[in-house]
Structures are given as C-alpha cells and as structure tokens.
Amino acid sequence: MIPMTLNEIARVVGGSLHDVRDPQATVTAPSAVDSREVLPGGLFAAAAGANVDGHEYAPGAIAGGAVAVLASRPVGVPALVVEDVQIALGLLARHLLEHISPVVIGLTGSVGKTTTKDLLAQVLERHAATVATDRSFNNELGLPLTVLRADATTRYLVLEMGAGRKGDLTYLTGIAPPRVGLVLNVGTAHVERMGAGPADVAEAKGELVEALPADGFALLNADDPYVRGMAGRTRAQILWYGRSAEAQVRAGNVRMTDGARTAFELVTPSGRAPVELDLIGEHQVSNAVAAAAVATVLGLDAAEIAGGLSAARRRSAGRLEIAERPDGVTIVNDAYNASPDSMRAGLRAVKALAGARRTVAVLGAMGQQAEASRARHAEMGRLVADLHFDVLIAVGAGDPLAMAQAAESSNPEMAVHTVEDVAEALSLATALLEPGDVVLVKASSEIGLGACARALAGA
Q1: 111 labelled binding-site residue
Q2: What is the number of other CB atoms lying within 10 angstroms of the CB of residue 71?
Q3: Any binding-site annotation on 351?
Q4: Residue 153, marked binder
Q5: Domain assignment of residue 92, yes or no
Q6: Which residues belong to any copy of the Mur ligase N-terminal catalytic domain (predicted)?
C-alpha cells in the first residue's frame, strides 16, 4: 500500500469522512475485510455479507489499529462512508495501480488456480519482489485487497481471478488490467451459474484473454480444447503450454516418485531442466507447467524456473494437505472445495500415495453442478469403487446418497456408509480408522468437511 491520507482516499472513492478528527491521518498498511486481520495503519473494509455485517466489527477494527473504516454508513468511529464498499475498494485498487508499475499477471481456470498461483509466486519471489493472492481471495473483494498489498517495490503482481458467472472476469480485469493472462482449464465448476455446460464456462473464462493488451501474453493450455478455442479472442501474443508436443512450454518424461509426487523434464524455448515437485498427484504437473509458462514470458530461463518449482511447497490449506498421525494414519485434507475434476484428481492422488495401505474416502457434495449433479456424484461413486478404495463414507443427503449407491453397485465388497452430517462423519471415521490407513476428506467448502479433516488429523 502506498501511503495515502484519509482525505486523498475519500477523493479517490467518492466518499465522505465521518467521526474523523484528522483528515490528514495516513493509511500506511493494507486493507482487510476481517477485523481480526487488521494491521496497525491499515483500513478496515466493512463489507456486508449474507451472514455477517462488517459494520458491527468497526469498533474492534479501530481498536486493533485501523486508521479508519471504509463503510456504507456511519459507524461511530472514524469512517470513510461510500455508497458501495466493494466498488470503493476496486476504485482504490485501480488508483494504486496507476501509481506503481508492477507486471500484472491474471490467472483463471476451473481447477488448480490456487496451487498454480502458489507455485508461480514461489518461482517469481526468487527473482524479484512479488505480491500474490492470499489463500483464494480471488473475487470482487479479494482481488482489490491483494492489489492494495502492493507498493512501489512490487515487480510482479500475481492475481488469481475467480469467475462464478459471466462478467466476473471483465469486472476484475477492469480493476487490475493484466499484461499476462493464464488460462488453466475449463471444467464444470460453477456451471450452475454460468450456463448449460463447458462452452458457457469457456465463454466466461475467456474474458481474461480478451482484456489483454496487444503487447501482452496469453498463456493457453494446449491440452484443453476449450482453452485452445480462446486463441481467437485475444490481441495478445499466444504461448502454448502443457504436455502436448506442440506446446512451447511443456512437460516431458513425466514419472511418479516417492510419496505420489511427480518429476518431469521442463522444456522451454530457453532450454530444458529437471523438476521434482513436492506436491502429491500427477495432476500437479499441469499446474507446474502453467506456472513455468508465465515465468518464461517474464524472461526466466529453464534452470531458474525448474529450481523454483522444485523448491516450492504447499502454501494454501485444504488442498491435498497431508497430516501424519502417531498411529500411522495419514489424513489428506482436500476439503477446501470440490468439482468432478478436482475430485478425480484427489482420489487418484490418494490411491497413489497409499500404495498397498488401506484407503478411506470421506466425501461430501460437489456444489453448483446444475441438472447433472446427481449423475456426476454417481460417477464419482463409481470411480471410488473402480480405484478400489476400502471404505467410503458419503456425507449428507441427496447427491452423496447417489454417490454411495453407485459405489456399492459397482463394488459390493467395498464398505459403504452414509451419514447425515459432518459430526456423524467424524464419529464414524474415528471409529472405523485403523493404524496405517490413508484417508481422503473432500467436498465443496460449504459442507464444512475441513473441520472433520482437522479433527481426524489431531486425533
């Protein structure tokens, strides 16, 4: 954040000052929407959500060191009052970018965004000052909050951009116009809000490459036909990446290593270099090559990129997060979110990790799957059976029951259990687990299975 007085911020966002003793008081730290994360000298954005109204936490934020509150009404403490807090944050972020000059990198996709962002940030941090999206703060509030962490020293600004519906990426790229745009894949995540199928998702995701300037770079996944179809929607120079032989940045000689990790040869226009990832699952190769594509157009050579990827570690919780218990039980917490693509990847990664050990899947619903939801859950049940998991615990009514029924039908010898909620899942899993088991816990975030995973890991 570049230092700005409250008066300056008010002019930028079109707000008015209330209960402010010193209009020249300076905001020197980033903004936050969680009062517990306010930094001294920062700005607290009092966003009103479906369940929580940030205005109620304004006094606590000021007590925690915030200079003022960005609010939609007076709150009895120093405040910048605006019509819409979300829009005001976007205006402030855009103003900041007009006064500093980082390379803005936007990335989107149906799955893998956060892991790719984390890998890319760790590669670029070894090269220059880098600010990247924290956790999965990739929406209308999260993106400007990320931008507002940048300052005059920031060279690379890595922005994960989520799209729940058409128009979202147009809005986000309006706040932070990217020079480099990376599209990972097109799947069925958010299909309920985007349209009838992958073509509708592709239309929404392609808004990112449409926003790129003529002297920018569009990095497209050569292995995904829907992403390939975006080539005609951008003015920017296109670089293809993936595992296809025609990709300019690609992975060759992919192989599994100890603990279900992967190694490959990174091939770029600057040369070749070996990569050994610390993340589990073969699907991580695609994420790593995507990060490598960005680093390539930014001028890093193959050896620099490979070194960064090999040194990278998991940063974001709830994404194939591994915990080892004293009794030899391994808990894999992949419960941050779930779609058919990420569910397949998680199940396969855990089976590879387990080897000959007993495997347990604690699975909840995958959200936003529209009319095909029941069929997609049944497909996941059949995959659990085909992969020969020993135990399936399906959590919740409706679609998880379809998953359980399909699994039982495909493999009658597998132990299949259905439970109503997270508490019952935890109780049953605790009772069923045996020393040495490998357990995958996965569902869409709103199901709350992350709490089950954490409890099992601490048992």
Answers
A1: yes
A2: 25
A3: no
A4: no
A5: no
A6: 33-77
